[in-house]
Amino acid sequence: MPLIMAPCNTEMQVKKISAEDKIKKHLMEIGITEGGRIMLLSSGSAGVIVVVKEGRLCLDGALARKILVA
How many helices (H) and strands (E) does the chain have? Predict the structure, then answer.
């Protein structure tokens, strides 16, 4: 399921990132990788707030739809 539709406060595993290579590389640099763990804190139409490792990140809705989790 897309990250934007994931349940809040549940740790999920990133299964696939359906984005351009440039965007995938940037996500890897900030800690979001396929196979990595991510937790959704809040979700709205404009974007999401996630916890990756020890930090919180804000991602826009379009990007959150391209990150598939399970």
Answer: 2, 5
DSSP 8-state class, residue 32: -
Distance of CA 56 to the CA centre of its chain: 11
Q: How many domains does the chain have?
A: 1
For 11-60, list the strands marked E by DSSP.
11-17, 37-43, 47-52, 55-60
Beta bridge partners of 68: 2, 16
The CATH number of residue 39's host domain is 2.30.30.90
| This model's pTM is above 0.90 | yes
* Identity of the amino acid at 35: G
pLDDT per residue of the chain (70 residues) written in tens, 0 to 9: 999 999 999 999 999 999 999 999 999 999 999 999 999 999 988 999 999 999 999 999 999 999 999 9
